[in-house]
Amino acid sequence: MTPILRFAPSPTGRLHLGNVRTAIVNWLYARKSGGRLMLRIDDTDLERSTAEHAVAIETDLKWLGLTWDLFVRQSDRFAEYAAAADKLRASGRLYPCFETPEELELKRKLALSRGRPPIYDRAALKLTPKEIADKLAAGEKPTWRFKLERGTTAWTDLVRGPVEIQAGSMSDPVLIKADGQPLYTLSSVVDDIAFEITHIIRGEDHVANTAVQIQLFEALGGKVPTFAHFSLIADAQGGKLSKRAGAISLENLRDDGIEPMSILSLLAKLGTSDPIELRTDQTQLVGEFDIAKFGRSQPKLDIVELEHLNAKLMHALPFEAVADRLPAGADAAFWDAVRGNLLRLSDAGVWWQVVHGEITPDVNDRDFMATAAGLLPAGPFDGDSWARWTEAVKAETGRKGRSLFLPLRLALTGLDHGPELARLLPLIGRDKALKRLEGHAA
Ligand code: GLU
Fold this sequence. Notes:
19 helices
């Protein structure tokens, strides 16, 4: 049996760390198992969904390097959802309810005040066929609820192990709204059956949905897939992620210079028994993936961790991997000189400016600089020039350590930190170096 998985975002906003993790885990599962992945756009809510967000989801996933084998847009499939609803009506599992939202709210409050769980009381099931017909004839628009079977709904979850949910503790869910719109609970199951989804992997916030959906699979005559619900990410303080780091969109991260492999390295391992370490290619992450490695405790995400991974990635990437995104003219020598000092690729621009652009040198001790300038070796500089030069300056001035190196760095780069000068100096070249030591912008 070839596994078939799906990632099913609702196009009501941009992808963020929380939901992109679901995409990554499904993708890893599909690739590791030789299965297929479907991207399903859950856009039945025509008011909240937008075509722009749907396009942005695809753009974001592609940027991340994820690929999918099948694509479905739920707004193309309203007829299938209507047919499924008819089937449920015919078998007596979908019933019309005419209560207004205000009436339902009142019932809820009443139940709570009596110490009862605020679940729907199924009053609509007591309506006679004539009462229903009269209401419909009078133009009343019902919502349609799925009649849950009482008793236990159970499944073996790939992450949580055996799960049991008492359907008696749940309201019969509305599957069709008063305006006729099918809700996610139904459309999702209809598609999972139609496209023969074998594995549903998603966050634990869907556990209660799963109980309902298993009953729906059965009521519609579908095969119940295997489920896995991973724990949701908390932020570094243990708070709910959605309000903080989890809400950070891929778009923001990309604009901030965070690379796809940094995000993949983090999210593929978060919540698993594997340590989070940088991986520079997807194949390795796919090889290491195993859904059994996911644990039940809540993983914490510190956004700083993502920045560390990104810095490590900069150090690890060869020139060829970044060449087309570096300033025009940058070569391997430049990349090798600066990559150890980058948190993000765009920072390379700063060092490109230092090497090839004009900077204002920071020169205080002019006598010292004059001495240093006089000792500057003849060009062209090579990998040893810096060592030979600073040895000579040290011998002449008696300075060493920080008091020797920092003024030279400030003069040559205008900055008090940065890549090794032994590598930068040959790139800066003798003419520029000399002018800067003399305090001129160059
Ligand atoms: N559109 C649903 C969501 O974004 C899909 C959930 C599911 O995987 O079934 O929550």
